[in-house]
Write the structure tokens for this entry.
Amino acid sequence: FFSYHFYGTDAARFREKSRLVRELLDGHGFAGVPTVLDEWNFNINFDDRLRESYPHIGRIGGACFTAAMLTELQKGPVDFATYYDMQSNYMMLRYNGLYYFNGFTLVRKKPFYAFLYFRRLKELGRVREASVLPDLFTLAASDGTRGRCLIANYSFEHPAARELALDVRGDFRT
């Protein structure tokens, strides 16, 4: 296997990087070698803006980034991926976008729900991309009778609220 990390603010850019990794491996005789994205999370950069990243990770921007990354991961060519991170020690808690402890009470952060709703999609069956609009990341799944959709409106560079009208039709058996 070949493993690598992705930290950034642009989930769509991740898609380009993952394809480049696959192309490089294939081009150097490693076709079929599994790729493992063993760390991914939101980060503005590791140099002068690292501290500025921390507040975003556990809030709504981090949740939208997480949902966008889950969407991009469905497009391949990544075989396995792991979110970084879920440690609960004080120093690493800044990167943990999923939960924190308030005394003995576990408190869920907003990105937790992106994973929860993604799991609910997977429970229905095969997850598919449902839109190709810029900065709109959508996934849908069906069990043949019911359907679910996960939508994230995400752009770190150009955040903007937008009104969406959903047109849901079709055969849920496909």
Remarks:
- Helices lie at 11-27, 50-57, 60-74, 110-124.
